[in-house]
Design brief:
Blueprint: E1 14-18, H1 24-33, E2 39-43, H2 55-71, E3 76-79, H3 82-95, E4 100-101, H4 104-114, E5 119-124, H5 126-131, H6 133-141, E6 146-151, H7 155-160, H8 167-182, E7 187-191, H9 199-205, E8 211-214, H10 215-229, E9 241-245, H11 252-260, E10 266-269, H12 272-275
Parallel strand pairs: 1-2, 1-3, 2-9, 3-4, 5-6, 5-7, 7-8, 9-10
């Protein structure tokens, strides 16, 4: 049975983690619709990318990341990483007595709601696509839906190099996305936290024929729904953002500003010793 947090714990922060800084696009969406909420973000920049790692290693890292947030008394854990949501979501949900939200289910639900032909495209990292997690999430809701999934790994470095408006991004997107025009999908799920920054390029390449779904935006809506339903929404003050990273690179602030749309407020380094502590210590597991 899921334990409900008492209303007095509404002042606790929302916890968000990702393998790097891409999850800040979800933080940005949460801050738009929940401006009073404090947010604690952890980016595992010392061990990224998760998208090219084995499922076993992704699960281990994701549990450690979630434990790092849980120790800091968050009221909800948002798994912003698509690879971690694909391979580790059930383990995280079974390991922590707070609500856990992934990016797959909200995105799948939104894509199905706008698809009239029941033909949906999905793009993501190699790990996300190879996991088949989006296909399962979509098929669980509608067994008749047809899914065309494609790994698009070059889009991540394009965003991180700030090539968002560069002609090369259009060339790469055109090559990756042509299959979706040929297959005549009517909805495309952006299965990576970096991809929303290329939304305008993607829409242009798809010639307005495909509705583009930002899984991160839908995840933020789900976070809002859950904390309101549980009566743990913060009702006053201005929300603060605290960012922890396992490695702080010289260009972090510049890249983070691209993802957040504003200068980060507080940036702290978390040592790997802090992150890799036994995730089973002090947990109240659900069965």
């Amino acid at each position: 049975m899921r334990r409900r947090l008492p209303r007095s714990e509404s002042s606790r922060p929302i916890g968000v983690f990702d393998s790097g800084i891409g999850g800040l696009t979800i933080v940005k969406e949460i801050r738009k619709i929940l401006p009073k909420e404090d947010i604690l973000y952890f980016g595992d920049t010392a061990r990224l990318p998760y998208g090219s790692k084995s499922p076993e290693l992704i699960r281990r890292y994701a549990l450690e990341d979630a434990h790092f947030l849980y120790e800091r008394k968050v009221k909800i854990i948002v798994v912003a990483c698509h690879s971690a949501s694909s391979w580790a979501l059930s383990e995280i949900r079974n390991s922590f007595p707070v609500p856990v939200v992934g990016v797959l289910e909200p995105g799948a639900k939104a894509a199905l709601s706008v698809s009239r032909r029941k033909k949906i495209g999905v793009i993501g990292t190699k790990a996300t696509i190879s996991s088949g997690a989006y296909e399962r999430a979509l098929k669980e809701r509608d067994k008749d839906v047809e899914i065309i999934a494609k790994a698009t790994p070059l889009l991540v470095p394009l965003v991180e190099e700030d090539f968002i408006s560069h002609p090369v991004s259009k060339i790469v997107c055109r090559e990756y996305l042509k299959v979706f025009l040929t297959e005549k999908v009517d909805a495309l799920l952006l299965g990576c936290t970096h991809y929303p920054l290329l939304r305008s390029v993607i829409r242009e390449v798809l010639k307005g024929k495909v509705k583009v779904i930002d899984a991160g935006k839908e995840t933020a809506k789900e976070v809002k729904r859950i904390i309101e339903e549980r009566g743990i929404k913060k009702s006053s003050g201005r929300g603060k953002l605290k960012i922890y990273l396992s490695d702080i690179t010289p260009e972090f602030e510049k890249i983070a500003q691209i993802f957040l749309g504003e200068k980060p407020e507080v940036i702290l380094r978390a040592s790997l010793r802090e992150i890799t502590k036994n995730p089973d210590e002090g947990l109240v597991k659900r069965h």
